[in-house]
Amino acid sequence: MSIVLFVHQSAQMYGSDKVLLYLVQGLQARGDFQPVVVLPEDGPLHAALLAAGIEVHIAEVAKISRSIATPMGLFRLVRAMFKGVRALRRVVGTRKIALVHSNTLAVLSGAAWAMLARQRHLWHVHEILLSPKPVSKIFPWLVRLLSDRVMSNSTLTERWLLSEQPALASRSVVVFNGLPKVEKSSQAAIRAFRARVGASEDDVVVTLAGRINRWKGQELLIEAAAELQRRGRVDGMRFVIAGDAGPGLEDLPVRLKAQVRSLGLSKYFTFLPFIDDVWPMWFGTDIAAVPSTEPEPFGMVAIEAMAAQVPVVAAGHGGLLDVVIHEKTGLIFSPGNSIALTEALDCLASNHALRHLYGAAGAKRQQDVFSIQGQVDRTLDVYREILK
């Protein structure tokens, strides 16, 4: 089999990490290409890849950060790039590589090695970077310079990329992320999750899942819950914030919990750490909240919730506009507007039939549009175009 060398920036198990896992599993199952994955560290993704029988290596990947816009940041990146190129040479050895697949903009070693080795390079873009301005200019320029083909995870991601580098249009394609077939969790597992968050059988559970950072909207959800309390509408609801803080942001969960306490909402909120098996959570949830205050490039948690027949309340920008259909699979609200989020949550919390209707439509849309089979098919088409 022809080898595809994947280079990725994380060993966690959040959005782009799950995309990589599902994609390489799907590709390996098809048998046309053999995936070989390079990660910067050990972690849940590394363990999951090994368990799936995927060849995986830990090495320098030259992670790109916003510090690239500073002289010291650029120096460190160049140094890491040379180290990463040497590491990839050791991983590849004498084997023949069909192409390099850089998964996210945050890695440079795959692009650099492909250029030096005269190998085909696909950059798989999972980001929309609007600030700081120098960074939003540098990343698309690197993509234009160092990629044979560019694959974006949503039409909004591609729109941002082409707005910065229109010359990429002829090399650009959108391939939506997908999920493997989902089996419903056991009733015991669902009940255990609901008991863990203090929810009775009749309570409406609202879940916001994902890495805790400054733009995922956790604070906005708390503000919406406070408004529901002011309106006398919060009883019978439970709110779950699931996920760990990003590096350097460990103070954020502490501040969010303090905000909940100060508003007298402690009995309604549960904070959970990263959850490896998300399906009892989603099947035990009644409404998924994705209130991101900056544009989501895609929104994996939205299609996870849809797969579990959970309606989604989503901020109306970024890739979520590709995923959620307003008043069919969920509700779209004005980004950053806590009152609009309050209205959407109240609408669904008070209408079981509407939740069921939207949830069923969302599950069908996930299967039709956001399956791993569809993503693998379209990715293979892209590979074949590159290798013609």
- Judging from the principal axes of the Cα atoms, what is the shape? globular
The total of beta strands comes to 13
Estimated structural class: alpha/beta
Instruction: Please state roughly what percent of the residues sit in beta strands, choosing from under 5%, 5-15%, 15-25%, 25-35%, 35-45% or over 45%.
Output: 15-25%
Mean pLDDT score, rounded? 95
Cα distance, first to last residue? 16 Å
Uncertain runs are none
- Please outline the major beta sheet: 7 strands, parallel
Radius of gyration: 21 Å
Query: What is the succession of H and E elements?
Result: EHEHEHEHEHEHEHEHEHEHEHEHEHHH
Strand arrangement, largest sheet?
Answer: 3-2-1-4-5-6-7
The proportion of residues forming helix, as a percent range, comes to 40-55%
Query: Number of DSSP helices?
Result: 15
